[in-house]
């Protein structure tokens, strides 16, 4: 598979197909990440588009010290921050109909429907960095090192954010 | 290991992030401690509960069209804004920038010098310093706009950031630009396509930042670009 850096070089050289190839590669990760932040599919599509456009606009500012993937997540977080800052009412979360349980997953039996709903709401109310860390770790499958790159912290802080976030969710779940 | 030490590491244990020795010690402890086993079950419930939730997929047609949609939006925007001069200049200086970390002191100095040269060139040309007949708008109107590089307010917006020289403003904006790039904000929002700084835009960006982000900008500019914070306290503080 062509590396991200090769694709980016092709894009910088004016290859239009490279842009679409990069988007294809990361669209699902970015879309679902943003969807878990904004809980609205239309907004998630718009903000994902904005994330990619911001990335391409600033591609010359990408210095290659981090991976392109973590750089994209960083941009996505900032795009979402601006989205909420523009209209704080957007923070009100409505997850009805958005989430379903993976029937093939043995984990579904661990938790009741009501607990699942409370868990989703509780996640959306966690402090920003804990929320980002849990989403990136649990749903995006990133390592602590990658999460640290994205959130601009150390690996230890990323671990602590995950730890305290899960602890807080447990307390909320236990009521 | 006592219960406290085990519980501190249970999430890492559940996530399979521990080394084999630590993991084995925890396994042994869990075999004899019902309290810690209960604790582990609670963690499994939270992380497992989160993991069991999937989101509705927008469908194959969406994924097929999305890259095209982004491509079209990007090219549309590129067309309407024009290609900015600065990235071109930078690429011309650096070639491929993949392995360069910008801003670096040398890279930043070259870029700043480039911006100054472009502005100076424009002013020279407009004021007829090359000996052409054109004498520039300043002389035509008698408003004294083009007295010389750095002494007139043009091309900076009058009334903003009084007391700062053009050079200082360029430095602030350059530093801000580098930082904003990392944030994913637009370079074009900071630098217009014609290569001139629009100070209002730069500081409009600053106004949008929250206090935590402002602190970061302030620190980045202070440590990377200025020995003194005087300029910044005028504008940000």
* Helix vs. strand class of chain B: mainly alpha
Low-confidence stretches of chain B: 95-103, 127-162, 179-200, 222-237
Number of helices of chain B: 13
In sequence order, what are the helices and strands of chain B, one letter per element?
HHHHEHHHHHHHHH
Largest interface comes to: A-B, 69 and 53 residues
Low-confidence segments of chain A, given as residue ranges, are: none
Query: What is the percentage of strand-forming residues of chain A?
Result: under 5%
Query: Radius of gyration of chain B, rounded?
Result: 28 Å
Number of strands of chain B: 1
Strand content of chain B: under 5%
Average of pLDDT of chain B = 61
Largest sheet of chain A: none
Largest sheet of chain B: none
Number of strands of chain A: 1
Descriptive report:
The complex is a heterodimer of chains A (175) and B (237). Chain A is mainly α and 175 residues long. Chain A is built from 8 helices and 1 strand. The mean pLDDT of chain A is 86. By secondary structure, chain B is mostly helical. Chain B has 13 helices and 1 strand; from the N terminus they run ααααβααααααααα. In chain B, helix 3 (20-32) crosses helix 4 and helix 7 crosses helix 9 (166-183). Classes of the chains: A mainly alpha (175), B mainly alpha (237). Chains A and B meet through helix 1, helix 2, helix 3, helix 4 and strand 1 of A and helix 4, strand 1, helix 5, helix 6 and helix 9 of B.
Note the main attributes of this structure.
heterodimer; A: 175 residues; mainly alpha; B: mainly alpha; 66% helix; 1% strand
């Amino acid at each position: 598979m062509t590396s991200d850096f090769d694709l980016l070089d092709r894009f910088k050289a004016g290859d239009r197909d490279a842009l679409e190839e990069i988007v294809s590669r990361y669209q699902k990760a970015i879309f679902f990440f943003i969807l878990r932040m904004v809980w609205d599919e239309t907004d998630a599509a718009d903000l994902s588009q904005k994330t990619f456009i911001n990335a391409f606009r600033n591609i010359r500012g990408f210095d290659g010290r981090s991976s392109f993937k973590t750089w994209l997540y960083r941009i996505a977080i900032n795009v979402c921050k601006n989205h909420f800052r523009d209209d704080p009412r957007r923070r009100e979360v409505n997850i009805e109909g958005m989430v379903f349980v993976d029937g093939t997953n043995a984990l579904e039996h661990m938790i009741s429907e009501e607990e699942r709903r409370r868990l989703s709401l509780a996640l959306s109310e966690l402090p920003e960095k804990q929320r980002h860390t849990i989403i990136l770790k649990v749903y995006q499958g990133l390592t602590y090192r990658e999460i640290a790159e994205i959130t601009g912290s150390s690996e230890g802080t990323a671990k602590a954010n995950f730890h305290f976030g899960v602890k807080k969710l447990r307390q909320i779940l236990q009521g | 290991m006592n219960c406290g030490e085990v519980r501190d590491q249970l999430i890492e244990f559940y996530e399979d992030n521990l080394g084999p020795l630590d993991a084995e010690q925890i396994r042994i402890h869990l075999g004899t401690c019902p309290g810690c086993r209960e604790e582990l079950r609670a963690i499994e419930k939270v992380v497992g509960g989160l993991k069991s939730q999937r989101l509705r997929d927008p469908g194959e047609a969406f994924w097929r069209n999305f890259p095209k949609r982004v491509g079209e939006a990007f090219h549309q925007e590129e067309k309407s804004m024009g290609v900015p001069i600065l990235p071109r200049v930078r690429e011309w200086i650096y070639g491929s920038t993949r392995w360069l970390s910008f801003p670096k002191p040398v890279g930043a100095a070259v870029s700043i010098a480039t911006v100054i040269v472009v502005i100076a060139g424009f002013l020279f040309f407009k004021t007829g310093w090359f000996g052409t007949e054109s004498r520039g708008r300043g002389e035509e109107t008698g408003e004294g706009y083009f007295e010389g590089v750095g002494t007139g307010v043009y091309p900076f917006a009058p009334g903003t950031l009084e007391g700062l020289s053009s050079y200082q403003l360029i430095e602030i904006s350059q530093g801000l630009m580098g930082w904003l790039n990392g944030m994913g904000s637009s370079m074009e929002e900071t630098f217009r396509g014609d290569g001139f700084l629009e100070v209002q835009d730069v500081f409009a960006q600053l106004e949008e930042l929250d206090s935590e982000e402002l602190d970061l900008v302030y620190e980045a500019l202070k440590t990377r670009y200025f020995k003194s914070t005087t300029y910044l306290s005028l504008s940000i503080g």
